[in-house]
Write a structure and sequence with these properties.
18 strands; zinc-finger; zinc; Znf_C2H2_type; zinc ion binding; 31 helices; single chain; alpha+beta; binds zinc ion
Length: about 725
């Protein structure tokens, strides 16, 4: 017997097991070796085959197989087929608050808290083998059995799914056949779904392709008859030709792929496929909310709680989240020097008892951005601006990108409607879900309990953040900062570092909101309450809106300061614009810089006082500028030093890991940079973004490294639309 490590189904041979795994568990990212005692897993199917041939060559005579069965050491359950089933079962004892003694030999640890047990097991008994369990837990029997796999078959079938699919159908058991036919159909549908929604192949093109495929496959019937005739000739030459034709026709007609796309098949047309996806793939469907029935204004909301439940059905996600929580917990209180690697190292997180307590919480980052879906060159440009509100799970350690940290859509609304009806209305269904998440939580079957959670931060550009949070939406004068009460005049003469500005705190902000409500006028830049802070108990205005490094630095200060300094360097005749642009074009860009290669600088740049360009292009230009043009600038040139300082600052800000030392260094650099800039351009007013930058050192201590929020914004922009 060969037992699947994933679902514990038993199969007759190694090859059958591999086939089963490929078909039933193909969403797994790694394929485990089918041998019970082998812990190896593989990224690709091919690698697994190579491993099998090398590490477990087929034995000629008979194969010895160990069959293990687990018994609970607390109750009478004694037929738990796998280790995983055993631990799932142990979990039920924790759920009923029983004290569970550790099941490993020589260990006297006991606890009635699942999380404590889990971390004990990970610390003390990882890795372990079946021999490490206390006597009586594991029973192993040696089963001698005929090995039914055939190495020659492997060689032919390597990664050739078409062949496997056909052989899977040839099973004699009717039930199995029907079942596997359904599975093949579902896998096929999943492949088509990927084509349509990830590769953006239009549904009509897929219809055409499927029709063609169906036609071509049916056209192979005469060929099949020929082949069958050959086979029958060899083994039973008396068989009537009509029988052969019938066999071939039946085989052709029973092919689940052809059935699915043939007449009456469920995957035949775009419409039918969408039906099929909805029925088979747990689609979380958007709900339309009416803003104004008469004007026909509405927006779409994709229920976040439902999506969360779906996400937490994945074992890999749950494992990562639990593991991350455990690591965070064990890192707490270690006396070493403070390092900031994620938002959970920031003081805002640590000081929030709901987020950083012993209980595992679901942490969401909400991300808001406007984007255009139509040709931006068209005349009807404004009409198609959409506001997208996305969410992502911030429980995962930074850097664990890929499919785990996907960004999910929550709200889609026309930007004009957001302006007209306000964020309160548009955020309402989302906030209702968040209130439930804070107070009740969502049930996670894999953990057997509810997890509560909340919105950790809202990442938006400055305008977006100010309008949701209820601050002034103008940055040309007055109170321009959501972190402190500075005005655009104050920031010209005072530095954040000097302590001249009072930071906005919960108490201060509450009093501003109150006075704004009473007087009907904004108070210290506060126009109204923040609807998120208002609805949620554990979200607060002064901890919920991190800075936006993309617009502050890479699309803000960098293009503006580049324009000023380059204009000055050109006026000093170190080089001219033509030389500069030629060097920009001819520079040998490598790796990521190739895709983000900077554009040439437009002739209008000094009049427009910015070089334009997107964040990645500007970043590449600033970073590579010393290599592009540095040799033409004499030493000690102050405009050049300003650019180099800005480059250092940007580099420090995007660092994924910060220490108190690196933050102090950043603070010094920012102050130095400000001084030089004001010296060289005494008549130029500092921008609000200059002031925000001065907040960065303290903001990194509060929010953790800021770069995570940037990359996320960037990815979201490029996701679905
Ligand atoms: Zn299985
Ligand atoms: Zn192996
Ligand atoms: Zn038990
Ligand atoms: Zn133990
Ligand atoms: Zn400020």
């Amino acid at each position: 017997m060969w037992r699947c490590k994933e679902c514990s189904e038993s199969l007759s041979g190694r090859y059958e097991l591999l086939k089963h795994f490929r078909l039933q568990h193909r969403h797994r990212q790694r394929y485990p070796c089918p041998h019970t005692n082998c812990p190896c897993t593989f990224k690709t199917w091919n690698a697994l085959h190579i491993h099998l041939n090398r590490a477990h060559p087929k034995q000629n005579s008979q194969e010895q197989l160990e069959l293990s069965i687990f018994s609970c050491h607390l109750c009478t359950s004694s037929d738990l087929p796998t280790e995983r089933d055993y631990f799932v079962h142990i979990g039920t004892h924790f759920k009923s608050h029983e004290t569970v003694p550790c099941m490993f030999v020589g260990c006297s640890f006991e606890t009635n808290i699942y999380a404590t047990f889990h971390s004990h097991k990970n610390r003390k008994h990882k890795p372990h083998t079946l021999k490490d369990f206390k006597p009586g837990v594991v029973r192993t029997t040696l089963v001698a059995q005929e090995s039914s796999d055939n190495p020659v078959e492997y060689a032919h079938n390597q990664d050739d799914s078409a062949v496997e699919v056909h052989s899977a159908c040839s099973s004699s058991d009717v039930d199995v056949t029907q079942n596997s036919s359904k599975v093949i159909e579902k896998n096929f549908a999943a492949s088509l779904l990927k084509l349509e929604h990830f590769a953006h192949v239009p549904g009509t093109k897929i219809d055409e392709f499927l029709e063609e495929l169906h036609y071509l496959s049916s056209a192979t019937l005469p060929l099949s008859i020929d082949i069958l005739e050959g086979v029958f000739q060899k083994h039973s030459p008396t068989t009537d030709k009509s029988v052969i034709t019938e066999v071939a026709t039946a085989l052709c007609a029973s092919n689940p792929l052809l059935k699915a796309i043939g007449k009456g098949g469920p995957l035949r047309t775009s419409y039918l496929r969408n039906q099929y996806y909805k029925d088979s793939f747990n689609v979380v469907e958007p709900i339309e909310y009416i803003l104004d029935a008469k004007e026909k204004r509405s927006f779409q909301y994709v229920p976040v709680l439902k999506s969360l439940q779906q996400l937490f059905q994945r074992k890999d996600v749950v494992d990562k989240v639990v593991e991350n929580h455990r690591v965070q917990q064990s890192n707490r209180g270690t006396g070493e020097q403070q390092t900031y690697k994620s938002s959970q190292d920031g003081s805002h997180f640590k000081e929030n008892g709901f987020l950083s307590g012993d209980d595992l919480r679901i942490l969401l980052t909400i991300y808001i951005d406007d984007f255009e879906i139509c040709n931006p060159l068209g005349t009807s440009r404004k009409k198609h601006k959409l506001c997208g509100i996305y969410w992502t799970l911030s429980n995962l350690p930074p850097g664990s990108h890929s499919s785990l940290s996907s960004i999910y859509l929550a709200v889609l609304c026309k930007t004009d409607d957001v302006k007209k009806y306000g964020y309160d209305r548009v955020l309402h269904p989302l906030l209702q879900d968040m209130i439930t998440l804070e107070q009740v939580g969502v049930f996670i079957p894999l953990l057997g309990r509810c997890l509560k959670g909340t919105i950790q931060v809202v990442a938006a550009d400055n305008l977006g953040a100010h309008s949701i949070a209820g601050f002034n939406e103008s940055f040309s004068g007055g109170y321009i900062c959501r972190f402190c009460t500075a005005t655009s005049t104050d920031i010209q003469t005072k530095e954040v570092k000097s302590g001249a500005f009072s930071l906005r705190t919960k108490e201060l902000h509450d009093s501003h909101v109150k006075s704004a409500q009473e007087n009907g006028a904004s108070c210290f830049g506060v126009k109204r309450h923040c609807s998120i802070t208002q609805s949620l108990d554990h979200f607060s205005i002064h901890t919920g809106y991190p800075p936006d490094i993309m617009h502050d630095i890479f699309e803000g200060l960098v293009p503006v300061e580049l324009a000023r300094c380059l204009a000055l360097l050109i006026s000093k005749k170190y080089f001219n614009l033509e030389t500069l642009n030629k060097s920009i074009l001819q520079f040998p860009y490598k790796w990521a810089d190739k895709t983000n290669r900077p554009h040439v600088i437009p002739h209008t740049f000094s009049k427009r006082k910015t070089i334009g360009g997107n964040a990645h292009e500007n970043w590449a230009l600033l970073r590579l500028l010393p290599f592009i043009i540095g040799h033409l600038v004499p030493e000690g040139e102050i405009a050049w030093q300003i650019l180099l300082d800005l480059k250092d600052i940007a580099e420090l800000v995007v660092a994924p890991r910060q220490t108190d030392e690196s933050i102090a260094y950043l603070e010094g650099k920012i102050s130095e940079h400000r001084q030089k800039y004001q010296e060289l351009f005494p008549d130029v007013r500092l921008l609000p973004k200059h002031h925000y930058l001065e907040h960065y050192p303290q903001l990194i201590r509060m929010f953790g490294p800021l770069v995570g929020l940037w990359t996320m914004r960037f990815e979201a922009k490029h996701s679905f639309f």
